[in-house]
Amino acid sequence: MDISVIWFDLDNPLYPASSGLLDAIDVRINEFIATTFAMPIEQTPALRKTLYEEYGATLLGLHKKYNTSYEDYVTYVYALDPADYIKPDPSVRDTLMSLPQRKIIFSNSNADHVARVCGHLNIADCFSYKFCLDRDFAVKPDPRAYKKVANAVGCTFGESLLVDDVDRNLAGGKRMGMRTLKVDEMLEGNGYDCIGHIKELPRYLAEMNNPGASSEVS
Questions:
Q1: How far from the centroid of its chain's Cα atoms is residue 158's Cα?
Q2: TM spans, by residue (predicted)?
Q3: DSSP letter at 99?
Q4: Angstrom distance (rounded) from CA 53 to CA 17
Q5: Edge-to-edge, what's the strand order for the sheet holding 179-183?
């Protein structure tokens, strides 16, 4: 079945991981946890690791296990200006606009962050839907998150391509029957088809539809 819908993770696939934005968010998550639980900040990574492994996302674990406020978390953690970290790359918009498939954002970040980043990159109008972290807390790689998106969009997993930078999210998509593509600047695919920059996506799709063509995609 041909790909008719492309599901894009936002953070890292659509701007460089080397920008430092996610690193800054990571620092603020640690600060939030340290303040909320009155614990040394150096102890926060261990708690986050446990919550991430058990629940799939730090906020989901904080909410379910400790009844942490969604609003307090997202207000603090995402209080960053993307312009301080990311330089807009016109080739990203050009690439997205060149793709005939329906395109959606499928992110574990909250809607305000997604809107700010998409606005800064001038790509907000490239997507027909944006699915973000919200109060029902269905996040990748929870199967409920993928099913929620497919039902809302009206597509099947077999006609969908998931573009993400996180192996466990890609694994979740593959289990649902999606095709998957990793974006990693260092081309560390870990068994997944991998490109280094989103502008390589049209070539990847062309080669997917023409398996006999030569390919540099790992």
A1: 20
A2: none
A3: -
A4: 22
A5: 129-133, 102-110, 5-8, 160-164, 179-183, 194-195
- On whether both 9 and 26 belong to a single domain, the answer is no
Question: Residue 82 domain-assigned?
Answer: no
Contact 73, 51 (CB under 8 A): no
Number of H helices, E strands in the chain: 9, 6
The amino acid present at 3, given as its one-letter code, is: I
In order, the DSSP letters of 123-171 are -GGG-SEEEEE-TT---TTSHHHHHHHHHHHT--GGGEEEEES-HHHHH
- Chain CA centroid to CA 34, Å: 25
Range of the domain at 12: 5-16+89-209
Give Cα separations from 96 to 34, 88, 103, 156 (angstroms): 39, 14, 8, 21
Q: At what angle do helices 21-37 and 70-77 cross, to 10 degrees?
A: 140
Which residues are CB-neighbours of 186 under 8 A, at least 6 positions away?
A: 196
Query: Is the pTM here over 0.90, yes or no?
Result: yes
**What total number of domains does the chain contain?**
2
